[in-house]
Amino acid sequence: xxxxxxxxxxxxxxxxxxxxxxxxxxxxxxxxxxxxxxxxxxxxxxxxxxxxxxxxxxxxxxxxxxxxxxxxxxxxxxxxxxxxxxxxxxxxxxxxxxxxxxxxxxxxxxxxxxxxxxxxxxxxxxxxxxxxxxxxxxxxxxxxxxxxxxxxxxxxxxxxxxxxxxxxxxxxxxxxxxxxxxxxxxxxxxxxxxxxxxxxxxxxxxxxxxxxxxxxxxxxxxxxxxxxxx
Length: 230
Fold this sequence. Notes:
The protein has seven helices and 13 strands. The protein is α+β, with helices and mostly antiparallel strands.
């Protein structure tokens, strides 16, 4: 099984300035096919839609912004293009997948990458997703690693329910402070507090998801030797 960015009818050049068309067409012909193959082979994602290129290696994505309603309730707004004039840089497969993990899509109206049985691009079946989230009704989210799972929870403002992998647990044991949302360890209270305050000052999701400094304190399950309690 692979995860497919389904094709839609919205024109790929909807945001393109004709003065940059030749540059974009060169990128589409010589560079984009390699990036697309790497996304399929390394991440199991088949990108069928042609991105909204606005320049060589610059793509306009779509995302639903957070909207604060009266009374403090936070909802996702309507789909909007992200940086429709300049786009966002996509020079390699990892960059595009990072945008996918943040909830951005190549076309509006999509909730997540969909699972299909047949794969016309990837010859070998990729490994099953390391993390899944089924807290979205009929939509099932699948993530290949802890980092993308944490980004998913951050974007949708959800608790980290899954068990961290062993390398993350090791850092939690070795460092007195660790931000699971950002995957960042801290040796000192000062640095951990600075990180927490910086995220709070950013507002929006950052402030809402970094609401309690005690979540950075790695005290549960630790003994004086730094190991986990039985």
